[in-house]
Amino acid sequence: MEHINTLFARLETLIGLEAPYLKIAFKMTLTLIAFLAVWFVLRLILSFVERRMKKINLIEIQGPLFKIFRKALFYALALLTGTYLIAQFKLPYVRRIFYSFFIILFAGPVKNFLVVTIRYLQSRVAHKTDTQIDDIAFDLLIRFSDFIIYTVAIIIALDMLGVNVVPFIAGAGVAGVAIGFAAKDTLSNLIAGILLIIDRPFEVGDRIEVWRAPAGSSTWGDVIDIGLRATKIKTTDNIVIIIPNNEIMLRDIINYTHISEKIRVRINIGIAYDADLSKAKKLIMQVAEATEWLVDEPAPKVVVRNFGESSVDLQLRVWIKDARQRMNTISHITDRVKEAFDAEGIEIPYPKRDIHIIQKTA
Fold first, then answer.
1. Confidence band (pLDDT; 50, 70, 90) for 258?
2. Are 116 and 109 in contact, with CB atoms under 8 Å apart?
3. What SS3 class is residue 119?
């Protein structure tokens, strides 16, 4: 600073400036010219370095990083220039306001750098894993980075101005408690969403049972999104059902594809009491073995479950490759069994009653 003032003094003597205001105007003009000249040179250097770095291609995000660095360097140069100009007027409070303004201004490049870095880590780490926990964690960091960085910057700026920030922080805590009571349902959904992400009772793409499906519509569907407030499930009727996360955490979750896509399907079939049981079982097994999407191991099995009022209740148990074929499997096998029974004379029973008429003579 002293060397710059000495240089300006020599130039003022050389030009012959005597009036104080003319000296200040002269210093301001030369300072602004020097600022523009230095920035022009720095831009040329940065452009040259950036072109060289593109050929090397060290990291994928070097382009966005150069933009952030260029903006931060411009702010730093403007800060130095403004600091020198303010010092000429000897106004300490103006200097505080100026520094506070630049503290908030520098929060922008810091936030951008953090977001770019998080996205880079997300692409290098999160997208290579099977679980979605890390993807959601990175998204949460990106969403809250703005609030955290700018809040810290504002607190530092207020402290720079000499404002006591302790009452504001305490007031913010009280306001947070009040807002928490007012938005307890939203916070409950948020906490439940985080617990869903941690516990992972289901993931995007899993097929689960839906207890809030409209009457008469499909009662299961695929998870298409797990948000912080709610989970979206698309049923097989192409209806998207949005269920709050806190409600999901209170229910039993039936997940058909959590372990694997393979599940067992049970199909109830009844035959008449006087029907040939062995023949009926054989026909049912033939139909099952002819169904292409069943697995060979475990093999299909027919068991007698119960003796009903008018039927012998059988149950076919088969394993299918894809849980999403459950209803198709039940419909297909039921149709084929009906055709086989009709062709072989196996009676499918219906309720029967024997009526005895007793005539009494007087």
1. confident
2. no
3. helix
